[in-house]
Design a protein that fits this description.
By secondary structure, this protein is mostly helical. It is built from 6 helices and no strands.
Length: 110
């Protein structure tokens, strides 16, 4: 969860130095992702045909693992958790590379 948050934050902060209006899109995107993350409802309540949409969000296996650990119910899968870790690693690496690229001209654009 920390790697996803850090990677996404680095990407957004790197892009908003050049594109100021991106913050409005980020606000809308965060609200949209809240509905595609099973925080209020468990993943097992969804029909199988729509479950893949929720599993496309890398936060879904993390939330489901927390639900399974603390409440004893929920869906736990090493496969989905591994895919979430892979997505977090890719997002964090992309964020670091993008930040290193933008860092050179950061003071000129601010």
């Amino acid at each position: 969860m920390a790697a996803l948050g850090l990677g996404t934050g680095i990407i957004v902060s790197s892009l908003t130095t050049r594109y100021r209006d991106l913050r409005f899109l980020v606000l809308f995107g965060v609200q949209l992702l809240m509905y595609t993350t099973p925080v209020i409802y468990p993943l097992s309540k969804l029909p199988d045909q729509y479950r893949w949409i929720m599993l496309a969000n890398p936060m879904t296996p993390v939330i489901e693992t927390f639900r399974y650990a603390f409440l004893g119910n929920g869906t736990f899968s090493w496969t989905y958790l591994g895919m979430s870790c892979a997505a977090a690693t890719i997002i964090l690496a992309t964020g670091i590379l993008l930040f290193n690229h933008v860092e050179r001209t950061f003071m000129d654009t601010v």
